[in-house]
Amino acid sequence: MFPKPPNGPDLVVVRTLPMVLLPISDDRRFHTYRLSFQTINTHFTCHMSVSKDFTIAIIGGGIAGLTLGIALHQRSIPVHIYEKAHHFGEIGAGVSFSSNAIDAMHVCHGGVHAAFARVATLNAWLSKSTVWFDYYDGMKSGASPEGSQKLFSITTPVGQNGLHRADFLDELVKLFPAEKAHFGKNFEEVSEGTDGKLVLKFADGTTAEADAVVGCDGIHSRVRRMVLGADHPSVEPVYTRKYAYRGAAPMDEAVAAIGEEKAKNAAFYLGNKGHVLTFAMKGGAQMNIVAFHDDPEPWTDTVHLTKWSTQGAALKDFEDFGPDVKKILGLTPPELNVWAIFDMGNPLPTFTKGRLVLTGDAAHATSPHHGSGAGFAIEDSAVLAELLADERVKTPEDIEVVFSAFNDVRLKRDHWLVKSSRFVGDCVEGMNPDIGMDWEKFHQEMVQRYDVVMGIDISKQAQLAKDNLHKRLA
Ligand SMILES: Cc1cc2nc3c(=O)[nH]c(=O)nc-3n(C[C@H](O)[C@H](O)[C@H](O)COP(=O)(O)OP(=O)(O)OC[C@H]3O[C@@H](n4cnc5c(N)ncnc54)[C@H](O)[C@@H]3O)c2cc1C
């Protein structure tokens, strides 16, 4: 799909800046976006500065909060982030982004994309530069002497790009002014002050004022309680009856175990009541491993969604799987982290109330079977920042209208993700009654569903939201 001049080297187009071409001389090395970042560094989008008579408080400094904070700051909108931890940080785990998320990074600010580009690792083989995942039959019955058999590939314009979330957060933090980030601020509640300002109360007894609050406080959101009411049936996330072992292995060990093609390029092992996926990260030094398994039992500790388990337990869960899956699990440490997969299975009727709004996992925590929870959070940030920056939005009163316009364009798409991701989670484990283990039927489903995930022009959606806003303001 990329142009190749006669007798020239292979070329990769930096998608968002189509004029920038990067020669790739060796199709077996890990190519990252590092070069492209240096090339595009001077091309950051400039956002108009329009003075605003309001201040935004963001609760939570994860991917949703930071990308929104950066997008607002770059648009000269007064903004503060209140984070309950004592520094910005992420539990160590891999994450990847599809093309819709990468486009949204650009809309937020070119620096967000550059931050991503500095830490993302693509598939190693140039022949797989557009592959999102190669799908394999992960079961014993699907294995030949060479290991798991390939069934099909899902491709995207940007292929696969794995990164360690902590690395991404470290890069994003550099783009947000330190004096506007407040740590150790465990948000408890918000009320309206006498002067019309919103008063935020924190667990340490301190307060802060703002004209509007954006809840980016993740799956256990406190702001969600303020928006819906503490007793609302959609306030609590729901266990999807799946958990995931997460780990990473040194790439040389992974290559020795399962071969270069599967280790250095994104691979997805379909199975019965379980599935495993891997992709390269850390510049190709590590292979990220996520092994999901069905859980007949409830997850009783709804406060802590992770716990320690063992490699032995993982191998037992996957005992009916083929040799590749077992070799992958054999690369994990003796003790490894298990994540309970919760989502907003009871969709929120609205993301907003007055001058409060929710984005990211606070609004639409999803199971990760589309690999898109964080990506959709960045879409939220892009649309909300564009709305707040609109020149007609000047006063605190206008913000309520902005939040309604945001809700109108985002609610349906964000709800779709949660529902579709559950559907896919069942399909990849042979648990959908209509599809079973008919992997070709599943392939067709995936093609259609990834069209929805990636087939969005986020700038256009932001424009639609602005049109809606203008009508409402008029
Ligand atoms: C196994 C797994 C794999 C995944 N893989 C992918 C993937 O490949 N691609 C993808 O796009 N997504 C993926 N996701 C989803 C993604 O991780 C989340 O959607 C994303 O991290 C949500 O970001 P967030 O900022 O909304 O929430 P969080 O990351 O949870 O951040 C919330 C922040 O708010 C803070 N906070 C919470 N409460 C308060 C409070 N009361 N006061 C102040 N601060 C508070 C927290 O400390 C935290 O910093 C995956 C998820 C899982 C579980």
Automatic annotation (TrEMBL):
Annotated signal sequence is none
Q: Does the keyword Flavoprotein apply?
A: yes
Provenance organism:
Mycena sanguinolenta
Which superkingdom heads the taxonomic lineage of this protein's source?
Eukaryota
The name of this protein is: Salicylate hydroxylase
Task: Name the Pfam families for this protein.
Answer: FAD_binding_3
Gene3D superfamilies in the record, alphabetically?
FAD/NAD(P)-binding domain
Query: What lineage is this protein's organism placed in?
Result: Eukaryota, Fungi, Dikarya, Basidiomycota, Agaricomycotina
A GO BP entry? secondary metabolite biosynthetic process
Q: Which PANTHER family match?
A: FAD-BINDING DOMAIN-CONTAINING PROTEIN-RELATED (PTHR46720:SF3), HYDROXYLASE, PUTATIVE (AFU_ORTHOLOGUE AFUA_3G01460)-RELATED (PTHR46720)
List the coiled-coil residues.
Answer: none
The cross-references to InterPro entries, in alphabetical order and at most eight, read: FAD-bd (IPR002938), FAD/NAD-bd_sf (IPR036188), FAD_monoxygenase (IPR051104)
Domain FAD-binding positions:
55-389
User: Which SUPFAM superfamilies does its entry note?
Assistant: FAD-linked reductases, C-terminal domain, FAD/NAD(P)-binding domain
Q: Which UniProt keywords apply?
A: FAD, Flavoprotein, Oxidoreductase
Q: Which GO terms describe its molecular function?
A: FAD binding; oxidoreductase activity
